[in-house]
Predict the structure of Xylan alpha-1,2-glucuronidase.
Amino acid sequence: MWCRCIAAAAALAMLPVALLASPSALAEDGYDVWLRYRPLDQAHSAAAAVPALAAPASTPAQGAARDELLRGLGGLLGTRPALIEKVDRDGALVLGTPASSPLVAGLELDLAGLGEEGYLIRSVRIGGHAATVIAANQDIGVLYGAFHFLRLAQTGQSLSSLDLRESPKVKIRVLNHWDNLDRHVERGYAGESIWDWHRLPDWLDPRYTDYARANASIGINGTVLNNVNTSAQALTPMYLDKTRALAGVFRPYGIKVYLSARFSAPIEIGGLKTADPLDPAVRRWWKAKADEIYALIPDFGGFLVKANSEGQPGPQDYGRSHADGANMLAEAVAPHGGIVMWRAFVYSHEEPDDRAKQAYTEFVPYDGTFADNVLVQVKNGAIDFQPREPFHPLFGAMPKTPLMMEFQITKEYLGFATHLAYLAPMYEEALRADTHARGPGSTVAKVVDGTLEGHALTGMAGVANIGVDRNWSGSHFDQANWYAYGRLAWDPDAGSREIAQDWVRMTFSTDPAFVAPVVDMMMGSREAVVDYMTPLGLHHLMGRGHHYGPGPWVAGGPRADWTSVYYHRADRNGIGFDRSAGGSDAVAQYAAPVARQFGDLATVPEEFLLWFHHVPWDHRMASGRTLWDELVLRYGRGVDYVKSMRRTWDGLAGQVDAERHRQVAVFLAIQEKEAQWWRDASIAYFQTFSKRPLPKGEAPPPHTLEYYESLQFPFAPGDGK
Amino acid sequence: MWCRCIAAAAALAMLPVALLASPSALAEDGYDVWLRYRPLDQAHSAAAAVPALAAPASTPAQGAARDELLRGLGGLLGTRPALIEKVDRDGALVLGTPASSPLVAGLELDLAGLGEEGYLIRSVRIGGHAATVIAANQDIGVLYGAFHFLRLAQTGQSLSSLDLRESPKVKIRVLNHWDNLDRHVERGYAGESIWDWHRLPDWLDPRYTDYARANASIGINGTVLNNVNTSAQALTPMYLDKTRALAGVFRPYGIKVYLSARFSAPIEIGGLKTADPLDPAVRRWWKAKADEIYALIPDFGGFLVKANSEGQPGPQDYGRSHADGANMLAEAVAPHGGIVMWRAFVYSHEEPDDRAKQAYTEFVPYDGTFADNVLVQVKNGAIDFQPREPFHPLFGAMPKTPLMMEFQITKEYLGFATHLAYLAPMYEEALRADTHARGPGSTVAKVVDGTLEGHALTGMAGVANIGVDRNWSGSHFDQANWYAYGRLAWDPDAGSREIAQDWVRMTFSTDPAFVAPVVDMMMGSREAVVDYMTPLGLHHLMGRGHHYGPGPWVAGGPRADWTSVYYHRADRNGIGFDRSAGGSDAVAQYAAPVARQFGDLATVPEEFLLWFHHVPWDHRMASGRTLWDELVLRYGRGVDYVKSMRRTWDGLAGQVDAERHRQVAVFLAIQEKEAQWWRDASIAYFQTFSKRPLPKGEAPPPHTLEYYESLQFPFAPGDGK
């Protein structure tokens, strides 16, 4: 991390000045992520001066907060604060809980309502001196407050007259690692898993600590270590001991570990003949397994389960329901305070008439039957993390069940790590969608944060984009998606633009001449991906298996709903999946006002047009153009946006270190090439149905459709294994 | 690399001194490998002062030498030399070829005999000033000389009165990467492949340049990018373009790229029905493929081939010989100056009476029939990179054919990356072995360097231990094996102790109080692995498939020679593989004096005892102990050595940075645990045959044999895929 180079500077302080004339660029490899405590400029530095710090460190969690402030303020301000016990000068920073700090106790602050994780930051006077206090009910709240204070300093905000109260709106804020035990990361584009299982529990890579710091800084309080498509081996004593070691690293940072549980584990590692959730021996096995885990890890979070989906085992194998399966596991972890996150991403072996309908069909009947410590984890949309999907119809449809949001941070369908696509606007779009479940204003965010139906147990999951790549996420800009996910999990009502502003300032520069164009570029980047991959509500058109590049021609294979033609349904008449009442009637799964809006060609938003309707090629769009012309133009608009991002970025060359600038520039060049490929291949393909000319001025694809179809990428990263 | 923190120091030079009091340790994550240009102490620094540098930089190769000296001397001496055109002061360093540097040309040095890659370093006077010249016939020689000069400075040697002449004794000095195109590294214990194929050719990771620098610094001049078990995809235009991009990065550093060629590629990617090497269409296909490659990469090195071995396709599939196969490929690359490296590591589908005999049996008859640009690549021993093997009987047995040595740098059979085992003594042992092919003194080194039979085309291959781990090799000490391999490829007569001394000084410290114990520790470390895994000539006793941990009980499965029992043959009477005249008679493949020595129980060296003989449990050893007692004691001796390494290392805590010290300490603890496991499991197993008590004072294994046999490691790293 940054402090290392601080230390290097210390070691070299005695060297001749000539040495310091090294022409090499200041190294910026992205490892620091947004915890980049580089010196502030003089004006900010003076304004942010913190000469002294009164911070307890009698527990590891307290030590984490104190050390982070020493590291952060030392880096940002050029001077490490003096550690004090008494406030004897102006400008001290005082932190703690009433229990850990007599100074905090003496202030008699109103900490009620902050809960276990909340904190306040306030400008106060102590013993006649101006001071800032970070106070909370628990150590973890103090750590969160410390990170918030550092963020204020990093982003150049005033540190005087502070009066902030913060507590998270969502209780369970977890990353889901789709990491296999062999370190392959399913849908990972940042190298292999950071979990070095083979050398655990002995070798604790310092990276684990930096992972915990980064997550704690954005309020993430849990991590599911292993893929939802998991081996049962993860639950064997050998692996539980490795998990115990990781839990020990994460504990001071308020991060609980969770494990994905393979439903058939009682057979595979338990020696039983069945995994039937109503079988007493199976229930005993899971209870014993939970007891074994909690004996090793008293604060173990619980289980995440993918059951009866894409070939995974589950309760339906025994004629039981999802509720039967989830409740069995819930019963096992309940005595220890654990939870079960049961995924609603299901589809059966039989091909349904419309896969979009299946989760709703399978889960709604069980509303009210899940145990109190079960959350049902629902993807933002009903298909699978497409660049744009309408909100999942389950939100609002299971009022008696806490529904967790599952977002995908890794960009399985949005260009892998090389494409610059800031996902927070996509998350925001889903969270702000109005389910109308209890009338207007029944947003998905209110379902997720529990306020709509009064659930106390609430959660949000993000499928991690983290790997061993030096910059963690495979690209510098993908760190923003990790960051934004954490901020939105803490506060689902936060704004994606404000989050981007913070991230850019913390990660790159506080110079407004840099921040403004970069934030603008980010804010439009996801819409550009929608345009050049799947405009106007198209979806699931990518290459088979690895999901790399365009594949609108994908057909055949083991099941229809793994093809592209199933979803776009292009023919001589038009294009799109008719999910209106005249088609699959998936719209009927939404509340009536939503169903009416989506189900009517006249009122459906154009961005969902082809999601819900099969539309004639000559359908007249709001622009006055035909659908075909509009489609072609949208593809081109996406490519143009990438070109404009390149221009913007190239123009910022002097304002960011050369190392990161170069990588981003090369990746944008790759993105432009691939955006063009998506546009060209898609147009070449769909034109075989539309049989219409391209709009005037639109360049024809440079290759034949056969050429695009011939491209093969057997070693594309992140494929399922 | 180090220069980054130098740069950081520069950026921070203006910061208050208080900042510099950061308690963090100076970061040492191993990324710099031995090119660790940290400041020398004052005495050395003064002695090594280089105030000025006269170096041409009109080609990339020249620029590489100049930049390395600026970087290295700037780091080591605290002052970057001034770049000069004329020698106008004492102490200048002058480099170049007569063609690139008028100053060098003016010295009229005797460069004859240095060849294309050699160089001289000499203290001279130019225009009345004392100077040092690094001169060569070609740019690459100058770069090698620059690295040699830096090594002298790094290791604290005198830089005055220099008069060195160096040229490599071996022509082809290559790394073999067993890297798959999906980035899995077969037998890799340092993370996945550093080749980010997916983002090539666009994104050229700066790591590729650092890889080239590290290799050039030890004289490695070629790299085979892909696994010998390769997909034919590596030869498709898409991948050739990626290879072209890598070749461009490596070219200035004198490193040629080679590719492993799948023998059946004409079928798999060429659309032919056969890969018969005598088929004209097949020959045309390979010629066209070679032409295609050389059009992209004019200095492409050639092909490495694993054929008819472990299921790989090859000429025998068509009733043709290895020579037929090799010569076909040789014909394709010959017009372009390319070579073919044809591996002798073969064994047929049929199980032979003794796998150790097979390569000799298959290859010797073809001696003299290989094309001029073919090298036959032979592993150091006849089985497979075991901790100890007698030298391969092919060495000395194919006088008309250039035989390349193939060493394994990655520790497939020596504890993966976590065990500290310095392999240079093992390499040295093989190279110094006397084949007696042309009488006494016919060492393997002389076969490899071509002097025994007068071959000009010579080569050495090392199976790389490189991956994306921050320290490249999975552990700090495994970097020494990469380093030592390079030094021995350059000079097969170099000494492993001297190499270790250089490496320790460059990598850690020049303090004799550190260097001496660490070098001692390294020098005995491989013998310790032999002791705790496979003492007294035992071999191939590891876990099945992944090769992790002990598996002397491994039996059954697809073929006998993939089991342990095939090799140790323990029974109630004794243990060992009888390869004497009364057994498989593998000894007969050696020259008569060697065959006599190895074949006679009375004269066979004890370290090869059970390799060549089945020996009764009560056989009396040189120590006076019975074989059984000796075996048990050797196992314990290996464990004890690891314990002594831990003591040594713990005692050096203050003399090395905390970061590397900690990782090495943890890895040594893992090594002790695993050495003990090897010892205990092996004794528990062999005692079921010997039925003898342990020698007095030897602790019994703490677990039952059944326990050891029950351990499963399905996700151990590096398995074949």
Q: What stands out?
A: Chain B has a mean pLDDT of 94. The first helix of chain B runs from residue 2 to 12.
